[in-house]
Amino acid sequence: MTTHGESTSVPQLPNGAGAAALFSAGFGVFVLSVLAIIGDQSAAFKKLMIFYLPTGPLSGVTTIAVAAWIVSWVGLDLLWRRSDSKGWAIMAGIALLAIGFVLMIPPVGDLF
């Protein structure tokens, strides 16, 4: 217990794991939106993305996007978990999330 006037020191934790999670989430959303746009525009790519016939190309698009998200999260977490000051990665992850969400809006995605 501390008395009045004494300060306690809170240990500073590294933010690399959090930066890896945010960046990889943005990357996964961006990959999902780009693959969905390509699948809508290219008949050959659409056919290539059919992993499960009843769901059509959505099965391949989501499978690849989830795989990209998980691989990037695990890889970046292993690289960054003990490091600090990944502010650029956090901002890039937020930007990728925003761009990916905007690309999923049908009028925007149909522009490509």
Description:
Keywords: Membrane, Transmembrane, Transmembrane helix. The chain crosses the membrane at residues 20-38, 50-76, 88-109. This protein is mostly helical and 112 residues long. It has a domain at 36-109. Helix content is 68%, strand content 0%. The mean pLDDT is 91.
Order of helices and strands: HHHHH
State the low-pLDDT regions, or none: none
- How would a crystallographer describe the biggest sheet? none
Strand content: under 5%
What general form does the structure show?
elongated
| Helix percent band | 55-70%
What is this entry, summarized?
This protein has 112 residues and is mainly alpha-helical. The chain is built from five helices and no strands. The protein has helices at residues 16-41, 43-48, 58-80, 87-103, 106-109.
